[in-house]
Design goal:
The protein is of the alpha/beta class. It has eleven helices and six strands. The protein has two domains: 141 residues, HAD superfamily/HAD-like (Rossmann fold, 3-Layer(aba) Sandwich); 66 residues. Helix 9 links the parallel strand 4 and strand 5. The longest helix has 16 residues. The radius of gyration is 17 Å and the shape is globular.
């Protein structure tokens, strides 16, 4: 049986809620409008776990300097994305059950996301996940200087929860997230519902294909 963790840290986008489809398709539409035809589904795999800084850099590189005001361009991307998010964001199947099982076991939980806090303030309510999480603390890339794949965000969450990093389990769906969590010394479940599991195995994560597996992997059932 797995050792019971002192805390469980869940990534947000791609683990709790399915916001990445919207994000990649909005970005693909804007790149296409800028003269570079782009497929949102193909772009999604490249964007998984990416920061806004990465999106900006990649977008400006792709558009080849044709954007007169990159700040305004990114502001439009964020605004267009939020409009769609407010219409509703699907939960990842099994996420609510995994969170409920961990909370029922009395194990502290945190959400640890690369995404901006302002985005989660929209997406979590739009998905209904905020009601399931309740007063669970949420940590954002806004809270640290170095986001994923650095360990800083995970170490901050462990410190605030009052637990040792080595006693935490992280559920992540991106290679940058997995890499950062492992660098923090945490056990990592790499959620590979729409990712290549070999990429997670290569960096040392335990592969999970269905979030319904999580309670058993944590030794809760």
């Amino acid at each position: 049986m797995s050792v019971r963790p002192a805390a469980v840290l869940f990534d947000c986008d791609g683990v709790l809620i399915d916001s990445e489809v919207t994000s990649s398709h909005v970005l693909a539409a804007m790149l296409t409008e800028g003269g570079v035809p782009t497929d949102g589904d193909e772009l999604r795999s490249r964007m998984k776990g990416a920061s806004l800084d990465w999106i900006r850099e990649e977008s400006m590189r792709t558009l080849g300097g044709s954007v007169a005001d990159p700040d305004a361009w990114m502001a439009e991307f964020i605004a267009r994305r939020l409009v769609i998010y407010r219409q509703g964001v699907p939960q990842i199947p099994g996420a609510a059950e995994a969170v409920a099982a961990v909370r029922s076991a009395g194990i502290p939980i945190a959400v640890v996301s690369q995404g901006a806090r302002s985005k989660m303030a929209v997406t979590l309510p739009a998905s209904g996940m905020d009601a399931i999480l309740g007063d669970v603390p949420v940590f954002s890339g806004d809270d640290v200087v170095r986001g994923k794949p650095h360990p800083d965000l995970y170490l901050l969450a462990a410190e605030r929860l009052g637990v040792e990093p080595a006693t935490c389990v992280v559920v992540e769906d991106s290679v940058p997230g997995v890499t950062g969590a492992l660098a923090a010394g945490m056990r990592v479940l790499g959620f590979a519902a729409d990712a290549d599991p070999a990429r997670f195995e290569a960096v040392g994560a335990e592969v999970v294909h269905d979030l319904h597996q999580v309670p058993a992997l944590l030794g809760l059932v």
